[in-house]
Each structure stands twice: as C-alpha cells, then as structure tokens.
C-alpha cells in the first residue's frame, strides 16, 4: 500500500486541485482500505482497488459538500524550477492554462483522463475501477482529449 502513496496522491490532486484536499483524500482512502482489508480479494490488483476507493470518497464528498465550484490552488512557488528565458516562461504559462482547462472538464472526463494519461492505468482497469463499460471510458477520454486539443490550438503562442 505504501508504494501506491505517490500515485494516489497525484491522482487525488488531479481530481481535487488542492494539495490539502488530496492529502485528506489519500488519508481517507488508506483508512477505508485498512478498515475494509477483508474486502480486498487476494490475487486482484491492489492499485485498482485503492483507486476505486479514492474515487468513491471523492464523489461522495462532491455530493455532500458541493465542491464543484472549487478552483485550483496556485502551485507552490518554492517547487517551481527557475529560469528566465521567454520560451520557458511561455511553456509554463501554456502548461498552467492547460491545467486550468483540465480542471474545467466535466468530472467524468477529468477522472478518466487522469487515470489513463497521468497514471497509466489501462482502459480495462479504468472500466473495472469505475464500474463503467469500456466504451464509456474510450468515449469520455476521446472527448477530453479533443477538448484539450481544441483549447491548445486556441492558446496564443
């Protein structure tokens, strides 16, 4: 379980847009997993089970707290890499614009995009994790990718 911590935290941050919320989601995921460890089936993928728990907690919180209007926190300036050339600055601005745009995608598309593109989870595993047909996974991912492509083409260079 400990080996999954960085991946779960990255996924939680991508879903929530907040490091504090991500840490809270991961902590709740570990608490739930440890208290329900008897429900995990030996021989199945622990990472899929943990992602499913995290996603369920996130959805439950969205419904309970109505977090849909929350915006991405600014990244920690101490973690940013220095540099002063115009090309690097332009790339950082474009990356930040894309991050903000991804946050505006519908939750269903953003979740699948983060699992497949950022975490490298297979379409089938995402389908199993989220209990949705694989066709729905591919459709949502395609719509998310198309929206990002269209957005990037509009960003001034």
Largest sheet: none
Number of domains: 2
Mean of residue pLDDT?
A: 82
> Which fold name is given in CATH as the topology of the largest domain?
Arc Repressor Mutant, subunit A
User: What name goes with the CATH superfamily of the largest domain?
Assistant: Winged helix-like DNA-binding domain superfamily/Winged helix DNA-binding domain
Give the C-level CATH assignment of the largest domain.
Mainly Alpha
Query: Terminal Cα separation, in Å?
Result: 43 Å
Instruction: Report the portion of residues in β strands.
Output: under 5%
Counting helices, strands and paired strands, the structural category is mainly alpha
Task: Give the number of DSSP strands.
Answer: 0
Helical amount: 55-70%
Give a topology summary:
Blueprint: H1 5-16, H2 19-35, H3 46-65, H4 86-104, H5 107-118, H6 123-130, H7 134-154
Helix pairs in contact: 1-2, 1-3, 1-5, 2-3, 3-6, 4-7, 5-7, 6-7
Structure, explained:
This protein has 157 residues and is mainly α. It has two domains: 1-71, Rna Polymerase Sigma Factor, Chain: A (Orthogonal Bundle), CATH 1.10.1740; 84-157, Winged helix-like DNA-binding domain superfamily/Winged helix DNA-binding domain (Arc Repressor Mutant, subunit A), CATH 1.10.10.10. Helices cover 69% and strands 0% of the residues. The longest helix is centred in the last third of the chain and has 21 residues, at 134-154.
Structure, briefly:
The protein has 157 residues and is mainly alpha-helical. The protein has helices at 5-16, 19-35, 46-65, 86-104, 107-118, 123-130, 134-154. It contains 7 helices and no strands.
